[in-house]
């Protein structure tokens, strides 16, 4: 079952937290489009490998994106 759009998920293949955008189906089967926290290039992840991000992972991702924005003047 796919998460709700906007849910923060952890992708173990990338070792990153992102925002779930949508479910897709390609030749390999069901996959998910994930948007980086704070914006950037979306990536495609294995839907079966995703899990909800923990509170600590969500906080780390949000703070990391905010700090990156300050460094680059966003």
Automatic annotation (TrEMBL):
Protein name as catalogued: Uncharacterized protein
Domain of life: Bacteria
Native source species: Streptomyces carminius
């Amino acid at each position: 079952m796919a998460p709700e759009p906007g849910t923060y998920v952890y992708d173990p293949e990338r070792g990153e937290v992102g925002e779930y955008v949508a479910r897709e189906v390609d030749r390999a089967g069901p996959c998910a489009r994930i948007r980086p926290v704070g914006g950037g290039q979306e990536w495609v992840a294995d839907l079966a490998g995703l899990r909800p991000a923990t509170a600590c992972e969500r906080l780390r991702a949000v703070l990391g994106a905010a700090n990156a924005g300050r460094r680059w003047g966003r």
